[in-house]
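Tutorial sheet, problem 5. The two components below are modelled jointly, 621 residues in total.
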Amino acid sequence: MMRLKWFTQPVLRTPWRHPGPHGRMRTVLLRYGLAMLLVVLTSSVGLLLRLTVIGHVATIQLIYLLGVLLVAVLVGTGPAFLAALLSFLYASYFVLEPRYTFSMADPEQAIRLVVFLTVALLAGELAARARRQVAHAEHLAREVATAHALVESDQLKAVILSSMSHDLRIPLTAIQGAVDELTATDIEWSPQHRQQLLGTIQKQTRRLDYLVTNLLDRSRIHAGAVQPRTDWYALEGGILHTLDTQHALLTRHPVTLDLPPDRSLIPLDFVLTGQVRVNLLHNGVTYVPPATPLTICAWLTVDTVTVTVADYGPGIPATERQYLRAIPAPGCRYRHSRQRGRVGNLPGLYSRAGWAHLGRGHPRRRSQLLLYPAPDTGDRGGA
Amino acid sequence: MSENTPAVLVIDDERAIRRLLQTSLEARGYRVRSVATGEAGLLALADQPADMVILDLGLPDLDGLTVLQRLREWSQVPVIVLSVRSDEQQKIDALDLGADDYLTKPFSTGELLARLRVAQRHAARGMAPAAIICTGNLVIDLARRTVRRNGQLLRLTPTEYTLLRVLASNMGRVLTHSMLLREVWGPGAQQDTKLLRGFIAQLRQKIEPTPTHPHYIITELGVGYRFIEHPPGAADYP
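Model answer (structure tokens):
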């Protein structure tokens, strides 16, 4: 069963992870510890080599050098310096004759130390530079993703605007056309035709009013000018009331109610939720063939009441579902819907979305009534 | 072409618009068939030819432009597309795909009828344009390559003349910027709208009674230009 799913705006920028002072200290200790571990490891390898096959001092020194190089590349310049120093000391103490003593008399010792330190510095810097480049590339990739998200949201806005403009212009076109005809001087209209044209004006004006009201409601909800005024109501009462007021809409569509047996009262804003229910019904009957049945279904969970209106119509074309799914509602999104052939009656969707947002603004309220289009159940067969 | 009653096919998904067009056009003596989807429109046209098609670009099943494209593969029937104001590019695309004209919703019935008449006339005339074009006080003689205003010969440069000829031969129809550029300057100059704007301004200076309020060459914002027909001999200053 589809659930209404909360969603947040697309994450435009993942915040950099900044470890606190304690975290940073721990990281530093860890890195130096790792360096020491690697030196111990190279010493062991050196020892092993010396005990088994190769006893040559220069070879052993190379092993130590390799260890320093590894530390520099893997862990960083600072730990590499430590590793260089330790390696030098180890090599002097355990490998070079006379063993188990530190004799700095030999000038070669000083050269070795310098070589160790230089290798650590160079390799560390090279590795750090490579790491910076990787980080930079990742940063760039994130920027690209951000830009992408912005473009997508722009496209979405364009789709919504175009759909809204389409929705508003149909009634306007019909009204203007009918008025033009009634005022035309080149035609003598018969009474039936005149009546038909007047009927068009009446019907389309009502439709326009409905659209504009919804749009204004949405703006008010978005602007935060509407606060839900909740009171305790029976869910069934609200649904029946809506069906009652909209009976003219439903004369040609059989309606099945599937309501929970639990008749407990729930807190809701009767007017706002009523508007949402009307929009759902409108969507449910507008974009389906005549006489398509409607099913209104409700169920309760601990803190949510869900009401669905399923219309068994052709559903939304796959190409437009993506937009519906991504309606930039402030609080929620609608995952699937069988309603509407085009990108929805957007004012309707908007007011639903906006309303759900209102519910979300009060997380401590015991129950919220969330209304959304019914799940897409293609297997149940259309029409 | 048909007898006296031209047949119009209306392809629009909105019942209100379909009914309105049906009432309006039938009252003017057109035979009207109307369908709600692009597929049905293509089938209806294949089934029984129409003299004109009114095509809404915002159809639920197929994109209106796709319908137009598929229709143009086998039919040259005049097509007038219905579009919404916000989308200039869509109109241009439709015209480039072979639509004869467009109307922006909401449109007046008068406009629609005028567009239908123009489309019908152009379809009827086909390949044989008139040798002399008259509109208002302008007389363009295509055979002699002369243009007269109030009987006085106008001095036009060859490019100005070609531009005027292309516009006037398509009297009443909208021509997109790229169509005009291609016709007048050849295929290389199709993006140079600045060039076109310059020549239109020059032409207006010479043929328009008040160049700031054009009477003959009307700008279709963001789309192109339209050469308007006026009753021959009508005064320059209406």
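Marking note: The mean pLDDT of chain B is 86. Full credit if you identified this.
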